[in-house]
Design goal:
The protein is built from 4 helices and 16 strands. By secondary structure, the protein is mainly beta. The protein has one domain: SOS response associated peptidase-like (hypothetical protein yedk fold). Strands 2, 4, 5, 8, 9, 12, 13, 14 and 15 form a 9-stranded mixed β-sheet that branches. Strands 3-1-10-11-16 form a 5-stranded antiparallel β-sheet, with no helix packed on it. Strands 6-7 form a two-stranded antiparallel ribbon. Strand 4 and strand 5 form a beta hairpin. The protein is globular and about 50 Å long.
Length: about 210
């Protein structure tokens, strides 16, 4: 799964890379993006800001409304479920990424292991989005079974898209998009670091 990813390039660089219209209005983002925080996505041919995670409503023990949790990862095998299916069939997007992180190590001492495409400074992973009353436009990252070196860190990984599949994901029919939800077969670079995992992440629900 992915509860942290990095986008270290400028908005202008990302827009050029994906030949997208920039609609961010000068918005700045942190390099490291956590659930519940804004990130840049490409939807309808434009680079725009959305919140990472679909809001999941919760109630307390006495029935009182609690702050919603961001559901930041959508399992590819659950996309037909009610929570995801309308976004999957109608609102698919690209999430620009320079690397994503997995947590490795013992409980209380987990560190960040970063995965990236070694020959691509920017790449795209599959996303879906919708409007919400709580956070406005929001997005979730689509996850599939892990492959290659990613399987050394976790049993799931983001759906990494080849450039030739961008238009299929964003504009093709649902079945063509579903066929792209598979482990990445190309090369991946794994960088195991001593960076502590904790810090910066909102309370989140990773998969639903």
């Amino acid at each position: 799964m992915c509860n942290l990813y990095r986008m270290s390039k400028s908005n202008a660089e990302v827009a050029r890379w994906f030949d997208a219209i920039e609609q961010l209005g000068g918005a700045n983002f942190a390099d490291d993006i956590f659930p519940g925080t804004p990130g840049a996505v490409i939807a309808d041919g434009a680079l725009m800001s959305m919140n990472w995670g679909f809001p999941l409503q919760r109630k307390g023990a006495k029935g009182q409304a609690l702050k919603p949790k961001p559901v930041n990862n959508a399992r590819a095998d659950k996309l037909d479920g009610f929570f995801w299916r309308y976004s999957f069939t109608e609102r698919r997007c690209l999430i620009p990424v320079t690397a994503w992180a997995e947590a490795e190590g013992p409980k209380g001492g987990k560190t960040r292991s970063w995965l990236a495409l070694p020959d691509d400074p920017i790449f795209a992973v599959a996303g879906i989005w919708r409007d919400s009353d709580e956070w406005g436009r929001c997005y979730s990252m689509v996850m599939t079974e892990a492959g290659g070196v990613a399987a050394k860190c976790h049993d799931r990984m983001p759906v990494v898209l080849a450039p030739g599949d961008y238009n299929v994901w964003t504009g093709g029919d649902a079945e063509a998009a579903r066929a792209l939800c598979r482990p990445w077969e190309g090369e991946l670079a794994l960088d195991r670091t001593d960076e502590p995992w904790a810090g910066g992440a909102a309370e989140q629900v990773s998969l639903l």
